[in-house]
Amino acid sequence: MDNLEVLVFMASIYCACRLIYLWYKRIIFTWLSEKDNGIKLTLALLPAAAFAIILYTLKVLASFDVVNDPYYILFYIFLGLSWVFVNLLLVFIFFDLSWIDDVLGNRNTAALIAITGAFLGLTIIYSGANVGDGPGWWCVIYAAGLGLFAWILVNLVLNWGSRAFERITVNRDIHCGIRVGAFLLASGLILGRASAGDWTSFSMTVIEFLVGWPVLPLTLVAILVERYYISKEKDWERARQNHWFGSIYWAVLYLLIAVFSIVLYPLPENPIYGIISLPFTGV
User: Which residues, in sequence order, are CB contacts of 147 under 8 Å at separation 6+?
Assistant: First the structure.
């Protein structure tokens, strides 16, 4: 434990506690003053879900020197919660999607579904970066950063091809919210897997990240699906037609494709461990 690591730990504790406090402060304030408590309950459960996902990853799938060390488990939990909440700001900057304005302020259910998908997608990308052995927290941030960059990029492409986020925030299209929320989560799953693995080097991490290529055809499919629904929405009234079954179908399909892409690329063993074990085996 060096000085920089202690500094990062302290900063993560402060950042996570501060942002979680502000998160629940806003929820409780609006809970007392407005209706639609189902929306606020969903938001209230998201940090708990993130905590559970990160904790499971650290206890089961993380580096050998982390899984049984309470200090490092707390370190990566606070770092991860800070990561998720800070990157929600990027969701607002790049996607114009705000949990404060669109969800709490305007009580937009479509935006709630999209925010939920984004929150869980960010959590899974960070959790994926913790899977496997590595020398320190900086390699987790590096791998998670690759996943975050790709995740923002593919969702910007989706929005460019379909105006998806405008239809969620302005038109309150709940069916679009279901499909896009599932895409945000599915792309997070694929890129979380791409961010996972034992650390060897910066360049090798980029090469290994290419197993996330299924996110590209998934993005194309999502754009085509959204263009199909746009063609059915010639005016405001028709935009409110019932597309529940089709939207749920596509949402489930996106998630199944993500799960299949994870199964398709099981994590390989880091070859360096075979090299290290040679002196002990007499080889």
Answer: 125, 126, 128, 129, 188, 191, 192, 194, 195, 209, 212
Q: What is the pLDDT of residues 103-141, one digit of tens each?
A: 998 999 999 999 999 999 999 999 999 999 988 999 999
33 by Cβ neighbours in 10 Å (0-12 / 13-18 / 19+) ranks as exposed
How many domains are contained in the chain? 1
The residue whose two tokens read 């398709």 is 264
* Per-residue buried b or exposed e for 93-114, using 16+ beta carbons within 10 Å of the residue's own CB: eebebbbbebbbeebbbbbbbb
d(CA 136, CA 245): 46
pLDDT tens for residues 193-240? 999 999 999 999 999 999 999 999 999 999 999 999 988 765 545 545
Q: What is the pTM of this model?
A: 0.91
- Between CA 213 and CA 15 the distance in angstroms is 33
Q: Are 3 and 13 in contact (CB under 8 A)?
A: no
Fill in the DSSP letter of residue 100. Answer: I
Look at the block and give the residue holding tokens 């052995």.
Answer: 133
Residue written as token pair 């000085």: 3
Least Cα distance to 78 among 18, 124, 4 occurs for 18
User: Which residue range(s) make up the domain with 108?
Assistant: 3-281
Q: How far is residue 78's CA from residue 41's CA, in Å, rounded to a whole number?
A: 23
CA distance 259 to 261: 5
Element (H, E) at 81: helix 70-95
